[in-house]
Specification:
This protein is of the alpha+beta class. 45% of the residues lie in helices and 18% in strands. The chain contains eleven helices and eleven strands. β5 and β6 (252-258) form a beta hairpin.
C-alpha cells in the first residue's frame, strides 16, 4: 500500500473544514437571537466566545479572526438593542470578547505554523524513504515482487525496518531486516545496512561472504551508537536480518537467517516456514557470542522455491500487532486463507487485514513485508 494513500486514510479531517465553518456562524446567530429575546436579567452574550474558540481548533488565523469579528459585531448589536453599547455590563462583555478573539487567533496562527512544519517534515521523510528505502522493482528476472511499509508512528514515514533487492549475474539477492530501536538512529543504522548490501551484493560470490561483509560494516557503526548513548551493554544494539539468494537456473533459494522471523512460503494453499537448522546471531552480535565475523559463521541453507510459489518476507511488527483482546496477528493463518493471485494483491490483502486486526488501526511497531513470486 502506498504511504501517501495510507496517510490520506489516517488524516481525513482537512476535508471537513469547510463544512465545520457553518457551526460557529450558526452558533453566533443562535446566541444573538436568543439574547435579544431573553428576559432583561438573562445575558447570553458570554456564549459568543465559543464561536472563535471553536474555529481556532480547525481553521487558520484569518478565518478565526473573521469569526471573532462577527461575534464582536453580534455582541454590539445585542447591546444596542437591549440597552446601549456604553452599558457597563455590555462594555465588559465586548472588551472580553475582543481579547479572547485576539488570543484564539494567535493560537490558530501558532497551530497553522506547526501544521506547515509537520507537512514539510513529512515531505522530507518521504524523500528520505525514496533514497534510503528504495521501492522494489515489480519484475526482476524470473521474480515478480511487491513491498509494503507501515510506520507505527502517525507522523513517521520510515523507521528501522528495511528491505532491498539486488540483481546479480546469476540471480537475485534479497534482504529484509529490523534495527533494534526507533527514531533517527534506527534510520541511520538501516541506511548503513542497505548501503553495505547494495555495495557487496554484486561482489561477494557466496551468500555467507555477503552476510559477513554486512556484519563487518554494521558492527563499528553500532559500537559508535552505543558509545554515543552511553550504553553499557553492547548487546543492546543489533539488527536482525534475513539474506536470500535466488538463482535463475535452479528452483531453489539460499537463506542466511540472522535472528529474523523465518520467511513463509505459500505453495498450493499450504504455508511452509523456512526455518534454518543453524541460525546466525543478529548483525552486530557475532563478536559478542565469540564467533567473530568469519564467513563460516553464516551458513547458507537451501530450500525449494518452485514456479508459482510466493514467498513472504516480513518484520516482527507484523506478527506482533495486537487486537483489542491482546491477541497477536496470525500471519500464517491469514496467508493460508488467501485465495488471490500475485504479490501485490497479497500485500494489499494482508495490509488491510493487519490494520483491521490492530486495535484502532494503530501498530505497536513498524511493519514491513515483501512478497516474491517465482514465475514459470
Amino acid at each position: 500500500m502506498d504511504l501517501r494513500a495510507l496517510s490520506a486514510r489516517r488524516y481525513p479531517y482537512r476535508r471537513l473544514r469547510h463544512a465545520l465553518l457553518a457551526a460557529p456562524f450558526a452558533l453566533i446567530a443562535f446566541v444573538t437571537v436568543s439574547d435579544i429575546l431573553a428576559p432583561p436579567d438573562v445575558h447570553l452574550g458570554p456564549f459568543l466566545v465559543a464561536a472563535p474558540a471553536l474555529t481556532a481548533s480547525f481553521a487558520g488565523p484569518r478565518t478565526t479572526g473573521l469569526v471573532g469579528a462577527v461575534a464582536v459585531l453580534a455582541q454590539v448589536v445585542v447591546a444596542m438593542v437591549r440597552s446601549s453599547a456604553t452599558n457597563l455590563n455590555h462594555s465588559v462583555q465586548i472588551i472580553s470578547l475582543i481579547l479572547i478573539s485576539v488570543f484564539v487567533t494567535l493560537f490558530a496562527h501558532l497551530r497553522e505554523a506547526r501544521e506547515k512544519e509537520l507537512v514539510q517534515l513529512r515531505s522530507v521523510a518521504e524523500a528520505a524513504q525514496q533514497v534510503v528505502l528504495r521501492p522494489l522493482r515489480e519484475r526482476i528476472g524470473p521474480l515478480r515482487m511487491a513491498s509494503m511499509y507501515l510506520a507505527a508512528e502517525a507522523e513517521a514515514q520510515i523507521g528501522g525496518d528495511l528491505y532491498a533487492a539486488a540483481r546479480t549475474a546469476h540471480g537475485t539477492r534479497l534482504l529484509i531486516g529490523d534495527v533494534r530501536g526507533k527514531g533517527l538512529e534506527a534510520v541511520g543504522d538501516a541506511a548503513v545496512v542497505l548501503g553495505a548490501f547494495r555495495a557487496s551484493a554484486h561482489q561477494e560470490a557466496e551468500l555467507s561472504g555477503l552476510v559477513a561483509y554486512l556484519e563487518g560494516a554494521v558492527t563499528p557503526d553500532l559500537d559508535d551508537v552505543s558509545a554515543g548513548d552511553g550504553a553499557d551493554d553492547p548487546g543492546e544494539a543489533f539488527i536482525t536480518a534475513a539474506v536470500l539468494d535466488v538463482p535463475d537456473d535452479r528452483q531453489t533459494l539460499g537463506l542466511v537467517n540472522c535472528g529474523h522471523p523465518p520467511p513463509l512460503l505459500l505453495r498450493g494453499g499450504r504455508v511452509i516456514r523456512l526455518d534454518v537448522a543453524h541460525p546466525a546471531p543478529p548483525l552486530g552480535l557475532s563478536e559478542l557470542v565469540g564467533s567473530g565475523i568469519a564467513a563460516q559463521t553464516f551458513t547458507a541453507e537451501t530450500f525449494a522455491f518452485e514456479a508459482g510459489d510466493i514467498m513472504l518476507l516480513y518484520t516482527d511488527g507484523v506478527i506482533e500487532a495486537r487486537d483489542e483482546t491482546g491477541a497477536f496477528y496470525p500471519l500464517a493463518e491469514r496467508l493460508a486463507a488467501w485465495s488471490g493471485t500475485g504479490p501485490r494483491a497479497l500485500l494489499d490483502h494482508l495490509c488491510d487485514d493487519l490494520l483491521t486486526h490492530a486495535a484502532g488501526h494503530c501498530l505497536g511497531d513498524d511493519a514491513a513485508m515483501v512478497a516474491i513470486e517465482r514465475l514459470a
